[in-house]
Description:
Blueprint: H1 2-5, H2 10-17, H3 21-28, H4 37-46, H5 65-75, E1 83-89, E2 98-104, E3 115-120, H6 126-140, E4 146-149, H7 153-160, H8 165-169, H9 174-182, E5 191-194
Parallel strand pairs: 3-4, 4-5
Antiparallel strand pairs: 1-2, 2-3
Amino acid sequence: xxxxxxxxxxxxxxxxxxxxxxxxxxxxxxxxxxxxxxxxxxxxxxxxxxxxxxxxxxxxxxxxxxxxxxxxxxxxxxxxxxxxxxxxxxxxxxxxxxxxxxxxxxxxxxxxxxxxxxxxxxxxxxxxxxxxxxxxxxxxxxxxxxxxxxxxxxxxxxxxxxxxxxxxxxxxxxxxxxxxxxxxxxxxxxxxxxx
Length: 195
């Protein structure tokens, strides 16, 4: 327990966060059914913890119309023999993370040699995007990925602001990746594609 590890008394933490000692004790023992995010954030701050919350899509495979249109534009330029699966779950992941698209069955290639594609309709923070993408690559056991980004001026600016790092993250030029995909071949590495 973080409070005990920090050497703080129940009464002291309760006074910091504006709760009664007994209510905080019930929260610690998981006896409070609905603890508000505000209370959790205050408790975390008092203990020097960074409280975060995540939300995962649980419904429709493609979250919105823009995301669906981006996927349709991308898939429309692929060789007809390439199989596309949407929302392929990461293997063995305990959460609901999935690749937006999974490409495989390359003509003349092994079926197991799949390639994930992530669709981004709006990029505002390249560094945060890459942290998320690198975690998915690690957890999904893949060495390369296609990042498919909607062609907008703001997305171009967000990507350009990352400078040379973009080339390091995506060594295959977009033109070469498109040529491979149109021919039904797997690109040789990660690529960033605007469409």
